[in-house]
């Protein structure tokens, strides 16, 4: 565990809070209540010795009271005064821009620039300096590049919500048109090309350090609605993850989640991070999420108290956003250094584990409840250029495309056999086959010279009376966009031969719905297929090392899988099962099968 958890506490005063602006039209009593809530949040942090970053909203820039409070708290507590590009809706904004839209990333580029210049100029007019931090739910690369070029003082920004895509949309009654899956869960330096991707070099560095909008549960959020599982205390109340007794209300899950983030220092050279970013709408006096105001307020104070106690014990360091940016750059001098998280189930008490990995070339997740199966994969190596907003192909969908996404495109357990996206291994003996997706295991994290390695506890596959003990390991090669997978047979098979097949079943897209695949090609050896939904297969049996390739121009990606084996093959799906398959197979009676998976950019 890291010696100190790095913490950002961020507050934004919203005189026209999002939750009420459309319904209540900026009534004076709502504005007064919102100011009171902001002061309450500031007090809760300061009483526990925590400094904050005050992200001033557009409406708040028209409030003399907010301006003076921010200046006072900056001088008295060391709070940072930043500029939020959230909280745009207010009378002044609507009159000037003639729109009901309020998400900076959804405007056309001309309007984005106009709004940014308006906000930054007004901020300078009120404070006499430009901010060092800004943010929104999402900032695309175009917006970040523009801000950094014109306002170079900015060094840190809230830039995305982790896994805020179709799952969030569906749990908001199909009304939340803000899709932004596929990014990082911890601070990162965004690429100039796409803000989801960590920069791979100084030339690719956008010039800021980005942070997520919330610190979320990397298992519960992926499996379900992320808005219920975060270190934002009111998320925990919305998810009903607390209990009441005669002594009061407690939320051990919130504290366990904070400690799980502290634990991530074990996998990241001592670096662990958490953030709390709560707008005033969550604490209104009418109550929210079936919780009265008293409980909302208590949870916030208790959350601040938990962080404050960690600080008193020397286990936490509270930083403002700009301080975090400086700290991050001081401690992350290698652009290709990965972000790792071996994440345990802290909600339901099971032994389920995920391993998350992100570097400039890939983001993926391994599920050890399914033998180490890969259940999410994003090809960062493709460096997919993507703008968002009106006038682009991504008006509201800012997600980074997947190759594997076991929730949107199913995994091993599917209604139609073979239809799900997953990377796993099959073992066959005497015509009987078992998939390691059926074998629960646990994992151990290691640093190795070539990168990081995950080693699974051995599992046993029993086929036609033969027990086969198998251990899986996964080695991520730092700076290469390459994963080495080894399936090792540990026991004596007494001369019996089994077939090991490492397979990769994938699609691509951003939602549940597969785009047309006829632009892609599959190959193995000298044979190539132009995808046509015909279920055709090509294979290679010549040479020691064999590999199969998928070329996907729609997402600028080339995927290859190979190894020293008997056979490599590629197979197209059918219209009812729009996926593609790569596989490497070997017949063995001892030893194991080692394969590699590589992602590359393909124009």
The termini sit apart by 42 Å
Structural Rg: 25 Å
> Roughly how much helix do the residues carry, as a percent range?
10-25%
How would a crystallographer describe the biggest sheet? 10 strands, antiparallel
Global shape: globular
In the predicted model, the low-confidence regions spanning at least 5 consecutive residues are none
Percentage beta strand: 25-35%
Structural class: alpha+beta
- Give me the number of helical elements: 12
* Tally of DSSP β-strands: 31
Commentary on this structure:
- The protein is 23% helix and 31% strand.
- It is an alpha+beta fold and 603 residues long.
- The strands form six sheets. Strands 18, 19, 20, 21, 22, 24, 25, 27, 28 and 31 form a ten-stranded antiparallel sheet that branches. A six-stranded antiparallel sheet has the order 17-16-23-30-29-26, with no helix packed on it.
- A hairpin with a 2-residue loop joins strand 20 and strand 21.
- The longest helix has 20 residues.
- The model has no long low-confidence stretch (mean pLDDT 94).
